[in-house]
Design goal:
With 281 residues, the chain is mainly alpha-helical. The protein is elongated and about 70 Å long.
């Protein structure tokens, strides 16, 4: 015979299990546990149910409910994969797929979970929907991600070759990758290509990714250290305009300059960096 405490625990466990099964966003088992559930089957069969769940996920607070948001998107992605072959010719379904994966990308960016962006979002979309990726800029982003985040220049070049027929930015992408990865040529050309070919008017993804992931910090510091070998002194405006192609100096670099080199503020408030006068720590 069960004790009162054991009965209470059993009741609590059953109530929790039922609550999880009936709540699509709390179904932590996802695909493995939910394949047999009616809710899972409805999501497979009904586009309206998928859209309703997506809208519910999208409305969640991005600060306090981020983990629930990420979990809900993971469930939707599993639903998408399970029915993709049977629905891939449906343009409404394809549009929905892009919405789900775009929101997934935004969530990972907010969480700064950059390692997941490649395999979970970009690789999947490039594998199954390459033409759409070219159209919305994800193809360019994938090449930049591979070369600048994963340091996989060979795979980046393979992607460029694979989609060359629709990739209008092929040559600039090759230059951007080789300048970053091979450290060949002045890094100011990297910033120039970024500003001219991949600014946020032409590609909404690349510069925000490079900023948030710290790649721009790395390139700005690389540029600064080359300037330190080439010049005795340089004004901050000249450094930003000539060397960084007007890309805003990141706070981390400003701090590094202040801690590493002597700075002088002129009467017109212009700051001058004296590269040959390193601070003694």
């Amino acid at each position: 015979m069960l004790t009162t405490e054991e009965k209470r625990r059993q009741k609590f466990s059953q109530e929790s299990l039922n609550r999880i099964k009936n709540d699509q966003l709390l179904d932590t088992g996802l695909l493995s546990r939910s394949q047999s559930s009616a809710a899972y089957k409805r999501l497979q069969e009904s586009h309206e149910d998928r859209v309703a769940l997506f809208n519910q996920i999208k409305s969640l607070d991005g600060t306090t409910q981020m983990s629930t948001k990420a979990h809900g998107l993971r469930k939707l992605r599993e639903i998408i994969i399970s029915v993709f072959d049977s629905k891939k010719e449906n343009p409404v379904f394809i549009e929905f797929v892009f919405k789900v994966y775009t929101l997934t990308y935004e969530v990972y960016m907010e969480q700064r979970d950059f390692d997941k962006i490649g395999g979970i979002v970009l690789e999947m979309l490039m594998r199954y929907l390459p033409d759409q990726c070219v159209q919305n800029g994800f193809a360019d982003l994938y090449v930049v991600y591979l070369s600048h985040w994963e340091n996989n220049i060979a795979k980046a070049y393979d992607v460029i070759r694979t989609i060359r027929s629709g990739l209008t930015s092929r040559e600039p992408l090759l230059q951007l990758c080789s300048l970053f990865y091979g450290e060949t040529g002045a890094p100011r050309y990297w910033f120039q290509i970024l500003q001219e070919q991949f600014n946020e008017n032409s590609n909404q993804w690349i510069i925000p990714f490079l900023k948030k992931s710290g790649v721009i910090d790395k390139m700005q510091k690389r540029t600064l250290m080359i300037c330190a070998k080439s010049y005795n002194q340089l004004s901050m405006p000249a450094f930003q305009e000539m060397c960084l192609q007007k890309v805003t100096i990141v706070p981390g670099l400003e701090k590094f300059i202040e801690e590493t080199f002597e700075l002088e503020t002129l009467s017109d408030k212009t700051q001058v960096i004296y590269f040959k006068r390193r601070k003694v720590k």
